[in-house]
Amino acid sequence: xxxxxxxHGYINEVEITVREDAPSGLRxxxxxxxxxxxxLSPSDLRPxxxxxxxxxxxxxxxxxxxxxxxxIRYLIGNCKWHKVYDIIERLxxxxxxxxxxxxxxxxxxxxxxxxxxxxxxxxxxxxKLVDGQIEIxxxxxxxxxxxxxxxxxxxxxxxxxxxxxxxEAIKDLSGRPLADTTGAIQHAMASLECVAREISDxxxxxxxxxxxxxxxxxxxxxxxxxxxxWGYASEYGRHLx
Length: 241
Prior knowledge:
By secondary structure, this protein is mainly alpha-helical. The protein has eleven helices and two strands, in the order H-H-H-H-H-H-E-E-H-H-H-H-H.
């Protein structure tokens, strides 16, 4: 059942302040939401967490509470920050694959994903869980633009390559422990180049040549911005520090 805050839209997005970290509150929350809302027991969670962290379960711990519960909270509380996000992804995958009924699996996985994303929003964490994978999250306006761009590209088969390039750019930005900024720029410009080739019917020209030779309706000053972005990516994209 949705809480009062959710029913009335009082979920507030906090300015992003956390990228390469997993605060202690998040580490506790992952266990809480898995146990309380997704009906996983500590003994369900222990092999998943131990596998991600390459740890052996403590054979002296037999009871779920307090022993195994304390063990898994200690493990997630003391692991490297990026491993916490690996655990989140692995838990989502477990919920999808290990429920008896498909509909129940979807419900549990969606609950887990929604709760994790809500926590990210309210605590300024710059990540999001999308279909079981952690991706970089920006401000609300950035998220709307990216979602719109992806939906428009995916809706037309002729832009399938452009859509894949944009997806790869997002993956590069989502890289951990460090984002692949160079790769993100290259894939983003490749996506734009694919669209320009389709519009101009010039499948072999580069974006720079297309902008020089063909009149594509991009209103100023955005047209100049595109040219400069392409020039920058071509000149420096492979050598960013």
